[in-house]
Design brief:
5 helices
């Protein structure tokens, strides 16, 4: 028997027809008998539970759907396709939320997977234009313009490959964790790295925009630059520009190995370059070859010219300051050791003859007594007719004595009395020197003169200094043998400000409780303990040798 359609079966039983046995068999076979019906094999239309598997088959073109086409009222809706329900209520669901008109036209706000309700926090939420949100809550939908919107932190176990830009919707961009190729950050460091070690690649910082190279800072294999290959530049270089750079050419007369801070000066790897040729250049360096060095380059008149530096001041590794035109700190210390110089020099340089100028203060070699000395560059009816001729010393209470030389000649002139007498030319300096030498030996025989010369040559020259109540003494003396004694209640200082070859200096501390600190050019060298003495020796090449420290024995 065969299964027939309802229309075919109705034809068998129309009025006036008599169904055959076969047609009755078709009728019976076309319907399910109650003995053969298995309710578990069918999905109930309302309620109930399905214990089997819902399978549409691998070639099925059907689907599960909800039909809103026959809706006759406007309304919003939320519908579930599936729900996971426990004794505590719905805990997970899959469905959609939207609106329908009275003509059955549907608008979907979003579809969702996961969560307890359609407008609660859902695991995944999507819209009809293929935007997806992960972790959306309440009425949050995927952000317009973005295919994926993650609300909360994202944890990715593999690589993230971008075909476009990496942007932030709000807040700061942070790329964290290790082993990120270009931008890496951990709890200690943030590292931004270039593509390779090539000098042409690097990190470019462009304050004015990605395509604007003006004022950019470049970090690459050549170093850190601002527009330039060797220098970190500040300001406009042709107006008031400055720079910081490093040089690596050895030698005290060349750049040396060091860092430079400069104004209107750059370095091109070989030469110093002056960006603005109408201004002088100035530079300071801390340098392995040059020490602390202050330099200047004169204006070159041409922008970008190579210039040579003039070292104005230098501080050596031993602390000695050397200047271009005013000596060194060694010389300053020596002059300081001479004491007060007030009134001992006349700082006036006359370009033409003038009248005598009173000079009231002490001079370095004033005769004994109260004197008023005068310096004159010229005088009428005197032999000194050109500038620089006459120096006179005289007492205001007694007659004047004048002595001078005319121009640059060897003639010595003398005037006695009250200054009104005639000038007399005594002799040349050479003749006076010869006469004095002869007079010093006039009373000695040839043997005596010879012995005196030998004795003078071998007689040691000695000098003794004492540290007084100022507790401080400076010594700058060429004498071969020098003795310094000190016996003060407080610690004392002896400062040797000048070193001379083949000198022997003895420091004697007669105090029973105080120390004597020995300084060499102001720097502490050694301490002499109470009731001890020590010797130092200065070699031919001015090395200071400690000969030892010994106990004193006072005999009387």
């Amino acid at each position: 028997m065969a299964k027939k359609t309802i229309a075919a079966l109705k034809e068998y039983f129309k009025a006036g027809k008599r169904p055959t046995e076969s047609q009755f068999g078709d009728f019976i076979d076309s319907y399910v008998h109650m003995d053969a019906f298995n309710p578990n094999a069918y999905l109930p239309l309302s309620g109930g539970k399905m214990s089997g598997i819902l399978s549409l088959g691998n070639t099925s073109t059907t689907w599960i759907s909800r039909d809103f086409s026959d809706v006759s009222v406007n309304s919003s809706f939320s519908r579930y396709f599936t729900k996971l329900t426990g004794s505590n209520g719905d805990i997970d669901s899959f469905g959609y939320y939207g609106a329908v008109t009275n003509t059955g036209s549907v608008t979907m706000n979003w579809g969702f997977i996961g969560g307890t309700t359609y407008n609660g926090k859902n695991a995944i939420r999507w819209t009809s234009d293929q935007r997806v949100a992960i972790g959306g809550s309440a009425a949050v939908v995927p952000t317009t313009g973005y295919a994926l919107d993650v609300i909360g932190n994202a944890y990715v176990r593999g690589d993230v490959t971008l075909a476009g830009n990496l942007n932030t919707y709000q807040g700061s961009l942070q790329v964290q964790h290790l082993n990120v190729n270009k931008l890496r950050a951990d709890s200690v460091n943030t590292i931004l790295s270039a593509a390779s070690s090539s000098g042409t690649s690097g990190i470019f910082l462009r304050p004015a925009g990605d395509t604007v190279t003006t004022n950019q800072i470049i970090i690459n294999a050549n170093g850190t630059q601002y527009v330039d290959n060797y220098n970190l530049l500040f300001g406009s270089q042709i107006t008031t520009g400055s720079s910081v750079f490093h040089t690596n050419i050895p030698g005290v007369n060349t750049p040396g190995y060091g860092i430079w801070m400069a104004h209107n000066l750059q370095f091109n790897g070989t030469d110093f370059i002056q960006p603005r040729g109408t201004l002088n250049s100035w530079a300071f360096t801390v340098n392995n070859h040059k020490g602390f060095s202050f330099n200047r380059a004169n204006s070159s008149t041409t922008n970008g010219s190579a210039v040579s530096l003039i070292e104005l001041v230098k501080i050596s590794g031993t602390g000695v300051i050397s200047t271009l035109n005013n000596g060194s700190s060694d010389q300053w210390n020596t002059a300081y050791g001479w004491g007060s110089h007030a009134g001992k020099y006349l700082p006036i340089n006359y370009a033409a003859p003038v009248s005598a100028l009173p000079y009231q203060n002490d001079m370095l070699a004033v005769p004994v007594g109260t004197y008023v000395s005068a310096v004159s560059s010229g005088a009428v009816n005197l032999p000194f007719t050109q500038a620089g001729g006459l120096i006179s010393f005289g007492s205001t209470a007694v007659s004047t004595r004048l002595l001078g030389a005319r121009d640059n000649s060897d003639n010595l002139w003398f005037q006695s009395g009250d200054g009104k007498g005639a000038w007399r030319q005594l002799a040349t300096r050479d003749w006076v020197t010869a006469q004095l030498a002869s007079a010093s030996r006039a009373t000695m025989s040839t043997a005596e003169v010879s012995y005196a010369q030998i004795r003078e040559s071998i007689q040691p020259v000695k000098k003794e200094y004492e540290i007084d109540s100022a507790f401080y003494l400076e010594v700058n003396d060429t004498t071969d043998f020098i003795t310094v004694t000190g016996n003060q209640p407080s610690d004392m200082i002896c400062n040797i400000t000048g070193l001379y070859s083949q000198q022997e200096i003895k420091i004697i501390n007669l105090s029973t409780s105080s120390f004597i600190e020995l300084q060499i050019k102001g720097r502490s060298a050694v301490v002499v303990e109470p009731m001890k003495y020590m010797k130092i020796y200065i070699t031919k090449d001015l090395k200071v040798i400690n000969m030892g420290q010994f106990a004193l024995e006072v005999l009387a």
